[in-house]
Design a protein that fits this description.
39% helix; three-stranded antiparallel beta sheet; alpha+beta; two-stranded antiparallel ribbon; globular; 152 residues; 6 helices
């Protein structure tokens, strides 16, 4: 297996990816293991080190509404629909719906959403894996620069 940190234009890690084959790209940093500890850190391309910047961490926090608006209205509707409990569905789908409901409730109760938090990253990547958002959207949602109007 191959492991990579996905970095934005400032080289801040916003996702960790596991791949079956080797990948290349300017936004990928090879890792020795699946290490969520690099999330939110900045990769120094010259030294290969990860820098933990307090100012940068503050820039990864958005309001709950701003986080929801990073998803299109069609994506939000699809996620809400997938969260509906349908008694005629198999247990696995009902459990997946319950997981989505729990996640949406946690988000609604939060003071802010930290885009670099491992739980947030795993949740958005999970939505992509379930087909609730298109391939590549997790990286867009998590990696877009925080705008002043998105701050909590």
């Amino acid at each position: 297996m191959f492991f990579y940190a996905q970095v934005d234009s400032a080289r801040r890690a916003f996702a960790v990816t596991q791949a079956a084959s080797e990948l290349e790209g300017p936004d990928l940093v090879p890792l020795d293991a699946y290490d969520l500890g690099v999330l939110g850190k900045v990769h120094n391309a010259d030294t290969g080190e990860w820098d933990e910047s307090p100012a940068l961490a503050a820039q990864s926090k958005v309001s709950v509404l701003a986080f929801r608006r990073r998803f299109t209205i069609q994506e939000r509707a699809g996620i809400e629909w997938a969260a509906v409990d349908r008694a005629d569905q198999p247990d696995a789908q009902r459990q997946q719906a319950a997981l989505l409901r729990a996640t949406l409730a946690d988000q609604a109760a939060a003071s802010f959403i930290d885009l670099a938090d491992a739980t947030t990253v795993e949740g958005v990547q999970g939505m992509e894996a379930m087909g609730l958002i298109a391939p590549g959207r997790a990286a867009e949602i998590l990696g877009a620069s925080v705008q002043p109007e998105e701050l909590p």
